[in-house]
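Would you mind writing out the residues of a protein together with its fold in token form for me to study?
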Amino acid sequence: MAKQVVAVVGRPNVGKSTLFNRVAGKRISIVEDHPGVTRDRIYAEVEWLNYNFTLIDTGGIEPESKETILSQMRRQAEIAIETANVIIFMVDGREGLTGTDREVASMLRKANKPVILAINKVDTKEHSPYYYDFFELGMESMVETSATAAYNIGDLLDEVVKHFPNPDENQEEDDVIKVAIIGKPNVGKSSIINKILGEDRVIVSDIAGTTRDAIDTPFTDGEDHYLLIDTAGIRRKSKIKENIERYSVIRSFTAVERADVCLLVIDAEEGVTEQDKKIAGYSHENGKGMIIVVNKWDLIEKDTHTMNKFTKEIRTELAYLHYAPIIFISALTGQRMNKLLETIKFVSNQNAMRVPTGTLNEIIGEAVLLNQPPSDKGKRLKVFYGTQAAVKPPTFVLFINDKELMHFSYLRYIENQIRENFGFEGTPIRFMLREKDKGDR
């Protein structure tokens, strides 16, 4: 049984994101008291009465607006409505019925989906003074609620799950490759996702900072299942002027923590910047698979040496990402986009790869014979054996005689030998040193 999807829709500033955060149990959507803050759809996995479903928060719908962002917000909500099995239509119980509410209701009736009308901002047992006006909208189910005070949230969810099939307790989740698209504002992250999906799933415009939330988009390619996480453009702290952007930076780093593979998107016209280094460093420190994606490659004047020169610059500026493949693409023209998806799958497998202990120790033994370990004051480092302790990232435990004798350069040598024999392309490798028979220091 496919997981059910519930979309929360309505005009701006009626409390959709507050309801979403209340039901999801954590602060996922940005909540501010001015309209237009939630621009894209936000996803969360929710459980209620043994039903597991996906909840979607949407940008507010303003049906008659021609302004670019609001127009695209409306399209986002339309896609959410098309995707959803059940729709929560939220209105403001304090302001009463508006013309925009009527327009939204008209859109929903055409969708031919179950709709629950949530009359929000009603936190007492007394009806909203406009309660009976909302009957004009013709919705079969109506629940008065307060997302802020958590009033009648359970009643609202009860109405939602009435429209679900019986839950399948034996349903197993497929293996999903979680991919975070990270980088500075306006480098083309959302355009990359839209090109992969073949639809306008994420708002794209040339206004820096358009994507303020981290957006989860499920995606299937053949038998492979992905979760694409589009993050807000990460700005330097000196440029964060709004609370909204501060929330977005936190959420972007959280997206890195959730991901298996991170795509670091670099603007081909700007090259590697200090901010790129900071963003990449965060992903590296968290042990994520990494692909360096140079976007807008179509805008660069080229000769036979251009790509090699750019690659050399990246390897110099991001030396610690020596393991990360580099792909030059254009999300606008689709150049090399097919290779990008192949590389994501490959790097995900490398990040999760295990090496048999026997084979690992053969390689370590050969490495030690080829290049003798360092010594200090007559005492030589001895590497007894190693084993792989974890994946994502691949983590190896080396049992040695003395941690003080393990020089960084020799540990890098062992890492290079492991990479030469097993690959581990696109993923950092971690080492833990243990002194045999002594335990950890």
About this structure: The first strand starts at residue 4 and ends at 9. The radius of gyration is 26 Å.
